[in-house]
Amino acid sequence: MEETKSIKSEGRAKAPKQTRSKSGSELQKLRKDNAALRAELDDLTLLYEATIEHSEAIEDQLAGQTAKLEVLSGKLSKYLSPQVYKSIFEGRQEVKIASTRKKLTVFFSDIAEFTETADRLESEELTALLNHYLTEMSNIALKHGATIDKYVGDAILIFFGDPETKGVREDALACVRMAIEMQIRMSELQADWRKAGISKPLKCRMGIHTDYCTVGNFGSGDRLDYTIIGRGVNIASRLESLAAPGAITISFETYSQVKDHIVCRETGDATVKGIAYPITTFEVLREEMQEDFPSTDKLMDMSKQLEDLAFELPSEIGSKERESLVSSLKNALARLNEADDK
């Protein structure tokens, strides 16, 4: 009996050693696992830092590429009218051969007797003059919301109503107002051009017509041109050739859209090439709301100057000068008659 107790007592005495041995083994395992986790965490940290660094490098590359694309896009935009450029880049217009018929107001202009002026200038002087003129006119056109179709030498083709429109009436009115501002700006530029050595005044002829035209992308799959074609374009071009130097000639179709806001003078019917019927034409004088009519005293002084001028005119005067003088006098008489009617 005592022997049995002794054995049990020894068993109880040895048990704590086994427990301590087991606890030490578990602690060692935990330490190993912890070290492995730390190593794995360090690896993940390095991977994260490398990913961030790589991501930043990619962002820098993307920013650089975006900046290059913006510069390239800005350069390409110079070859398109802003409205066309915007509609393409915003996805509102597909770059493919397509067209539609719309009622547009078409504007044509050129500089009267520009060939004669060009012959007197060196190519560098001519280039500077032409670029200055086109820049000034284009700034005015874009200010009024025009779509600039093309430049052909000193000639400009512009239209209103596509790809953006405010309605036929408002488009026509914007076009005529644009032409009036161009006319005024041309007068202001004469002093600058005289200083540049151009003795003969540059006068711009303008023609405007409102009609249905076909507008869209024309060309091939490799080269497209956004432009307008049709009878309306032809009539606007003919009206421009009929206009006196410095004058704005519009068709009845345009006049009917702007008559409540623009003062015009009917200039009769004209037969134009390619059109089977006569075109009723009007000369634009000014906006209805302009209140710059001279005072009575100034009118009397101007009348006296005209009388003196009548006696001072040379016996031989060129047809172009006579035509320009007659046009100016007719405009003055028309305004006097309007003032009398009021």
Report the CATH architecture of the largest domain: 2-Layer Sandwich
What's the overall geometry?
A: elongated
Instruction: Give me the secondary-structure category.
Output: alpha+beta
Q: Ranges with pLDDT <50 over ≥5 residues?
A: none
> How many runs of DSSP E, i.e. beta strands?
8
Strand content: 15-25%
- Supply the number of helical segments: 9
Largest sheet, in brief, is: 8 strands, mixed
Mean pLDDT: 80
Give the termini distance in whole angstroms: 146 Å
Query: What do we call the CATH homologous superfamily of the largest domain?
Result: Nucleotide cyclase, GGDEF domain
Number of domains: 2
The secondary-structure element order is HHEHHEEHEEHEHEEHH
Helix content: 55-70%
- CATH third-level topology of the largest domain: Alpha-Beta Plaits
Sequence-ordered SSE layout with sheet pairings:
Layout: H1 2-77, H2 82-89, E1 98-111, H3 114-119, H4 123-143, E2 147-152, E3 155-160, H5 168-195, E4 204-219, E5 224-229, H6 231-242, E6 248-251, H7 252-258, E7 262-270, E8 279-287, H8 296-312, H9 319-341
Characterise this structure.
Residues 105-240 form the Guanylate cyclase domain. Residues 1-13 have a biased composition (Basic and acidic residues). The protein is an alpha+beta fold and 342 residues long. It has two domains: 24-79; 82-312, Nucleotide cyclase, GGDEF domain (Alpha-Beta Plaits, 2-Layer Sandwich). The protein is built from nine helices and eight strands. It has helices at 2-77, 82-89, 114-119, 123-143, 168-195, 231-242, 252-258, 296-312, 319-341, and strands at 98-111, 147-152, 155-160, 204-219, 224-229, 248-251, 262-270, 279-287. Strands 1, 2, 3, 4, 5, 6, 7 and 8 form an eight-stranded mixed β-sheet that branches. Helix 4 (123-143) runs antiparallel to helix 5. The chain starts with a helix and ends with a helix. The model has no long low-confidence stretch (mean pLDDT 80).
